[in-house]
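Late entry, evening session. Most of the bench is empty. Finally got around to the prediction I had been postponing all week. Sequence below, unchanged from the version circulated by S.P.
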Amino acid sequence: MDILSLLADPSAWAALLTLIVLEVVLGIDNLVFIAILSNKLPAGQQQKARRIGLILALVMRIGLLMLIGWLVTLQTPLFDLGLRGAPGPHGQPTFETAFSGRDLILLAGGLFLLWKATKEIHHSMEPEDNSGDLLDKTKGAAELTFTAAIVQIIALDVVFSIDSILTAVGMTDEIPIMVTAVVITVGIMLVAADPLARFIENNPTLVMLALSFLVMIGLVLIADGFGFHVPKGYIYAAMGFSVAVEVLNMAQRNRRLKNSAAKQETA
Protein backbone atom coordinates (compact mmCIF):
# COMPACT_ATOMS: atom_id res chain seq x y z
CA MET A 1 0.00 0.00 0.00
CA ASP A 2 1.46 3.40 -0.98
CA ILE A 3 1.73 6.44 1.29
CA LEU A 4 -1.28 8.27 -0.20
CA SER A 5 -3.50 5.22 0.29
CA LEU A 6 -2.34 4.92 3.90
CA LEU A 7 -3.12 8.59 4.56
CA ALA A 8 -6.66 8.07 3.27
CA ASP A 9 -7.22 4.86 5.24
CA PRO A 10 -8.92 5.36 8.66
CA SER A 11 -7.70 1.95 9.84
CA ALA A 12 -4.12 3.05 9.18
CA TRP A 13 -4.60 6.10 11.40
CA ALA A 14 -6.16 3.93 14.11
CA ALA A 15 -3.21 1.53 13.91
CA LEU A 16 -0.77 4.46 14.11
CA LEU A 17 -2.41 5.95 17.22
CA THR A 18 -2.59 2.53 18.89
CA LEU A 19 1.06 1.86 18.11
CA ILE A 20 2.15 5.25 19.46
CA VAL A 21 0.36 4.60 22.76
CA LEU A 22 1.85 1.10 23.02
CA GLU A 23 5.34 2.29 22.11
CA VAL A 24 5.20 5.11 24.66
CA VAL A 25 4.11 2.68 27.39
CA LEU A 26 6.80 0.17 26.43
CA GLY A 27 9.35 3.00 26.27
CA ILE A 28 8.83 3.99 29.91
CA ASP A 29 11.23 1.24 31.04
CA ASN A 30 13.92 2.47 28.69
CA LEU A 31 13.40 6.10 29.69
CA VAL A 32 13.62 5.37 33.42
CA PHE A 33 16.87 3.45 32.92
CA ILE A 34 18.39 6.26 30.84
CA ALA A 35 17.30 8.89 33.40
CA ILE A 36 18.85 7.02 36.34
CA LEU A 37 22.07 6.24 34.49
CA SER A 38 22.52 9.76 33.07
CA ASN A 39 21.96 11.34 36.51
CA LYS A 40 25.12 9.56 37.69
CA LEU A 41 27.22 11.51 35.19
CA PRO A 42 28.68 15.01 35.70
CA ALA A 43 26.04 17.71 35.16
CA GLY A 44 27.51 18.83 31.83
CA GLN A 45 27.24 15.34 30.33
CA GLN A 46 23.80 14.28 31.51
CA GLN A 47 21.67 15.82 28.77
CA LYS A 48 24.16 14.72 26.11
CA ALA A 49 23.99 11.11 27.33
CA ARG A 50 20.19 11.15 27.28
CA ARG A 51 20.10 12.61 23.76
CA ILE A 52 22.65 10.12 22.42
CA GLY A 53 20.89 7.20 24.10
CA LEU A 54 17.47 8.05 22.67
CA ILE A 55 18.79 8.88 19.19
CA LEU A 56 20.60 5.53 19.14
CA ALA A 57 17.34 3.87 20.21
CA LEU A 58 15.61 5.52 17.24
CA VAL A 59 18.34 4.44 14.83
CA MET A 60 18.26 0.86 16.11
CA ARG A 61 14.48 0.60 15.92
CA ILE A 62 14.36 1.92 12.36
CA GLY A 63 17.24 -0.39 11.43
CA LEU A 64 15.37 -3.36 12.89
CA LEU A 65 12.27 -2.40 10.93
CA MET A 66 14.36 -2.50 7.76
CA LEU A 67 15.40 -6.03 8.78
CA ILE A 68 11.90 -7.09 9.71
CA GLY A 69 12.20 -10.47 7.97
CA TRP A 70 15.29 -11.35 10.01
CA LEU A 71 13.72 -10.01 13.20
CA VAL A 72 10.74 -12.35 12.90
CA THR A 73 13.12 -15.32 12.68
CA LEU A 74 14.34 -14.48 16.19
CA GLN A 75 11.14 -16.09 17.45
CA THR A 76 12.11 -19.47 15.93
CA PRO A 77 13.46 -21.87 18.63
CA LEU A 78 17.21 -22.46 18.42
CA PHE A 79 17.43 -25.30 20.95
CA ASP A 80 15.25 -27.08 23.49
CA LEU A 81 16.34 -28.39 26.91
CA GLY A 82 13.30 -30.66 26.96
CA LEU A 83 11.84 -29.31 30.21
CA ARG A 84 8.30 -28.03 30.78
CA GLY A 85 6.55 -26.51 33.76
CA ALA A 86 3.25 -27.76 35.12
CA PRO A 87 0.21 -26.93 32.95
CA GLY A 88 -1.30 -23.52 33.61
CA PRO A 89 -5.02 -22.62 33.81
CA HIS A 90 -5.32 -22.71 30.01
CA GLY A 91 -3.46 -25.99 29.57
CA GLN A 92 -0.19 -24.31 28.51
CA PRO A 93 3.05 -25.05 30.42
CA THR A 94 3.96 -22.40 33.02
CA PHE A 95 7.42 -22.12 31.49
CA GLU A 96 9.31 -23.46 28.49
CA THR A 97 12.92 -24.31 27.75
CA ALA A 98 12.79 -24.07 23.96
CA PHE A 99 14.88 -20.92 23.52
CA SER A 100 14.74 -18.62 20.50
CA GLY A 101 17.07 -15.73 19.69
CA ARG A 102 14.52 -13.33 21.21
CA ASP A 103 14.40 -15.40 24.42
CA LEU A 104 18.19 -15.30 24.78
CA ILE A 105 18.22 -11.53 24.26
CA LEU A 106 15.48 -11.06 26.86
CA LEU A 107 17.34 -13.27 29.34
CA ALA A 108 20.58 -11.33 28.83
CA GLY A 109 18.76 -8.00 29.14
CA GLY A 110 16.92 -9.12 32.27
CA LEU A 111 20.11 -10.31 33.95
CA PHE A 112 21.84 -7.06 33.01
CA LEU A 113 18.99 -5.00 34.49
CA LEU A 114 19.06 -7.05 37.71
CA TRP A 115 22.81 -6.58 38.01
CA LYS A 116 22.71 -2.86 37.24
CA ALA A 117 19.73 -2.04 39.47
CA THR A 118 21.16 -4.07 42.38
CA LYS A 119 24.50 -2.30 41.99
CA GLU A 120 22.83 1.12 42.00
CA ILE A 121 20.73 0.21 45.05
CA HIS A 122 23.95 -0.76 46.84
CA HIS A 123 25.53 2.58 45.92
CA SER A 124 22.43 4.41 47.18
CA MET A 125 22.59 2.55 50.49
CA GLU A 126 26.38 3.03 50.80
CA PRO A 127 27.07 6.53 49.40
CA GLU A 128 30.52 6.64 50.99
CA ASP A 129 31.63 3.73 48.80
CA ASN A 130 33.51 5.30 45.90
CA SER A 131 34.65 2.06 44.32
CA GLY A 132 31.85 2.08 41.70
CA ASP A 133 32.54 3.23 38.15
CA LEU A 134 29.71 5.79 38.30
CA LEU A 135 30.92 7.55 41.46
CA ASP A 136 34.46 8.52 40.52
CA LYS A 137 34.49 12.23 39.66
CA THR A 138 38.04 12.60 38.35
CA LYS A 139 38.32 13.77 34.78
CA GLY A 140 39.68 10.54 33.38
CA ALA A 141 37.12 8.45 35.21
CA ALA A 142 34.33 10.82 34.13
CA GLU A 143 35.23 10.26 30.49
CA LEU A 144 35.27 6.50 31.06
CA THR A 145 31.99 6.80 32.93
CA PHE A 146 30.37 8.60 29.99
CA THR A 147 31.57 5.89 27.60
CA ALA A 148 30.41 3.16 29.97
CA ALA A 149 27.03 4.86 30.34
CA ILE A 150 26.54 5.02 26.57
CA VAL A 151 27.55 1.36 26.18
CA GLN A 152 25.07 0.32 28.85
CA ILE A 153 22.32 2.46 27.32
CA ILE A 154 22.99 0.84 23.92
CA ALA A 155 22.84 -2.65 25.48
CA LEU A 156 19.39 -1.99 26.99
CA ASP A 157 18.26 -0.15 23.84
CA VAL A 158 18.80 -3.39 21.90
CA VAL A 159 16.60 -5.38 24.29
CA PHE A 160 13.82 -2.81 24.48
CA SER A 161 13.97 -2.10 20.75
CA ILE A 162 13.50 -5.76 19.79
CA ASP A 163 10.56 -6.10 22.20
CA SER A 164 9.07 -2.86 20.87
CA ILE A 165 9.41 -3.78 17.20
CA LEU A 166 7.99 -7.27 17.69
CA THR A 167 4.98 -5.64 19.34
CA ALA A 168 4.64 -3.29 16.36
CA VAL A 169 4.82 -6.22 13.93
CA GLY A 170 1.90 -7.82 15.73
CA MET A 171 -0.20 -4.66 15.24
CA THR A 172 0.31 -3.89 11.55
CA ASP A 173 2.12 -5.08 8.43
CA GLU A 174 2.78 -1.58 7.08
CA ILE A 175 6.41 -0.50 7.53
CA PRO A 176 5.64 3.26 7.06
CA ILE A 177 3.14 3.14 9.94
CA MET A 178 5.66 1.40 12.20
CA VAL A 179 8.45 3.84 11.30
CA THR A 180 6.17 6.84 11.90
CA ALA A 181 5.07 5.46 15.28
CA VAL A 182 8.70 4.84 16.32
CA VAL A 183 9.82 8.34 15.28
CA ILE A 184 6.92 10.02 17.12
CA THR A 185 7.47 7.86 20.20
CA VAL A 186 11.19 8.65 20.44
CA GLY A 187 10.36 12.32 19.87
CA ILE A 188 8.02 12.21 22.88
CA MET A 189 10.72 10.47 24.91
CA LEU A 190 13.26 13.14 23.94
CA VAL A 191 10.91 15.84 25.22
CA ALA A 192 10.14 13.92 28.44
CA ALA A 193 13.70 12.74 29.20
CA ASP A 194 15.07 15.92 30.82
CA PRO A 195 12.00 16.71 32.99
CA LEU A 196 11.84 13.08 34.15
CA ALA A 197 15.57 13.02 35.00
CA ARG A 198 15.28 16.31 36.93
CA PHE A 199 12.20 15.07 38.77
CA ILE A 200 13.98 11.87 39.81
CA GLU A 201 17.11 13.79 40.84
CA ASN A 202 15.15 16.35 42.90
CA ASN A 203 13.23 13.63 44.71
CA PRO A 204 15.74 11.11 46.08
CA THR A 205 13.08 8.69 47.30
CA LEU A 206 11.97 8.25 43.70
CA VAL A 207 15.42 6.92 42.80
CA MET A 208 14.93 3.85 44.99
CA LEU A 209 11.41 3.41 43.62
CA ALA A 210 12.67 3.64 40.04
CA LEU A 211 15.48 1.17 40.77
CA SER A 212 12.92 -1.24 42.23
CA PHE A 213 10.97 -0.88 38.97
CA LEU A 214 14.10 -1.86 37.05
CA VAL A 215 14.51 -4.95 39.25
CA MET A 216 10.90 -5.90 38.54
CA ILE A 217 11.31 -5.29 34.81
CA GLY A 218 14.48 -7.41 34.82
CA LEU A 219 12.61 -10.27 36.46
CA VAL A 220 9.77 -9.90 33.94
CA LEU A 221 12.26 -10.07 31.04
CA ILE A 222 13.82 -13.23 32.49
CA ALA A 223 10.38 -14.80 32.99
CA ASP A 224 9.46 -13.87 29.40
CA GLY A 225 12.68 -15.48 28.19
CA PHE A 226 11.56 -18.74 29.87
CA GLY A 227 8.15 -18.51 28.22
CA PHE A 228 6.29 -17.30 31.31
CA HIS A 229 4.44 -14.24 29.99
CA VAL A 230 3.36 -11.69 32.60
CA PRO A 231 0.68 -9.34 31.18
CA LYS A 232 2.26 -5.89 30.77
CA GLY A 233 -0.93 -4.25 32.00
CA TYR A 234 -0.37 -5.72 35.48
CA ILE A 235 3.20 -4.43 35.53
CA TYR A 236 2.36 -0.88 34.52
CA ALA A 237 -0.69 -0.76 36.79
CA ALA A 238 1.54 -1.70 39.74
CA MET A 239 4.11 0.91 38.71
CA GLY A 240 1.42 3.56 38.35
CA PHE A 241 -0.06 2.75 41.78
CA SER A 242 3.40 2.91 43.41
CA VAL A 243 4.12 6.28 41.81
CA ALA A 244 0.74 7.63 42.93
CA VAL A 245 1.45 6.57 46.53
CA GLU A 246 4.91 8.14 46.39
CA VAL A 247 3.46 11.40 45.03
CA LEU A 248 1.08 11.50 48.03
CA ASN A 249 4.04 10.90 50.36
CA MET A 250 5.96 13.73 48.68
CA ALA A 251 2.99 16.08 49.04
CA GLN A 252 2.70 15.16 52.73
CA ARG A 253 6.43 15.79 53.31
CA ASN A 254 6.28 19.16 51.55
CA ARG A 255 3.27 20.22 53.61
CA ARG A 256 5.04 19.25 56.84
CA LEU A 257 8.10 21.26 55.81
CA LYS A 258 5.95 24.30 55.03
CA ASN A 259 4.11 24.01 58.35
CA SER A 260 7.40 23.63 60.20
CA ALA A 261 8.86 26.70 58.44
CA ALA A 262 5.72 28.72 59.20
CA LYS A 263 5.89 27.81 62.90
CA GLN A 264 9.55 28.85 63.06
CA GLU A 265 8.75 32.22 61.49
CA THR A 266 5.95 32.91 63.99
CA ALA A 267 7.99 31.73 66.97
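Two things to note before I forget:
The longest strand covers residues 77-84.
Confidence is low (pLDDT under 50) at residues 130-143.
Will write this up properly tomorrow.
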